[in-house]
Design goal:
- The structure holds two protein chains of two kinds.
- By secondary structure, chain A is an all-alpha fold.
- Chain A is 86% helix and 0% strand.
- In chain A, helix 2 packs across helix 4, helix 2 crosses helix 6 and helix 3 crosses helix 8.
- By secondary structure, chain B is mostly helical.
- Chain B contains seven helices and no strands.
- Classes of the chains: A mainly alpha, B mainly alpha.
- Chains A and B meet through helix 1, helix 2, helix 3, helix 4 and helix 5 of A and helix 1, helix 2, helix 3, helix 4 and helix 5 of B.
Chain lengths: 175, 183
Amino acid sequence: MIFWKIFIAFLIPNLLAYGGGPASIPLIEHEVVDRYGWMTQSEFSEFLALANSLPGPIATKMAGYIGFEVGGFLGSIIALFATVAPTLILMITLLNLLHKYRDSPKVMRLSSFVLPAIAVLLITLTFDFAKSSYESNKLIPTILMIVGSYLALEKFKVPSIIVIVVGLLIGGFLL
Amino acid sequence: MKIQIQLFKAFFVSGILGFGGGPTIIPLLHKEVVEKYKLMTDDDFSDVLSIGNTLPGPIATKMAGYIGYRIGGIFGLVNALFASVMPTVLLIIILLNSLKEFSNSDFINNMSKGVIPIVTVMMGLYAFDFLKKSHKALGLKISAIIFLYSFITIVVFDLHPGIIITSLLILAFALPAKGGKAQ
């Protein structure tokens, strides 16, 4: 059943994503693209580019939009519920326990041990996106665009929404 | 009622101005909740943030749900979550569906090609960020070991990343903690 699949597809990534929203991106991609095939790799990357340059939490923008595309209004609500509710319920019910142990080395290690694995997933996703850019834009435009957007985002600190709009225009006129 | 309106405004503003997701939302939220509406003290806010960070999942919604619940009960929880999540979700659904209306035009189709290299860079920057965080939290040696373990299992053997992360969580809990700081 589609609603159950939507629930699971967003529940698991968000239960594992230590390090906030960005950590859930490759995990959600794995479910949505590789496992359930609701989007292709390039659809996902185009969606993510826009989602990432709009305001608000990235995890809920992914859940709300993908849930809506796959299962309509109810799908959107279910994906959002799966994203938000489980850890929020844990936080409210276990508050005293968490408060007591938040500085314990083991609890701190829970979130830090996962960081290198998330880095591996993000690196893999970066290569997948580079490949899909190479497939649709060829080599030279891909390299120019990657270098250009790196300089804009990282060196000149141009707001990502502006970089994306320029990217859309370059795509429309030149690619 | 006044408190519910303040909650709504605080989470609406921090969500809609938070370009860059969770990490940029937190300082905005601090400004609204602690400085502007004085719904919580500074210490309470940092406390909630550090507790939120012991759990997985998006930090912005954990903050919204918990602060909303503490200040305004169940209705406050729903109110704060709604204010922080719904405006941007609606925005992206409407924006992308209006783009799709024109998806038979070549111009719109080509436009989307132009953003794939940009999102590649965004993900690369996130990856670098996580490498830096893990270096800071774990040191070079442990980071490298966990990195190699994850790389081999996920990339070479193509195992589900969820299994690998679960195994790391179990290890984090089961391995003896050094330094004698444990309770």
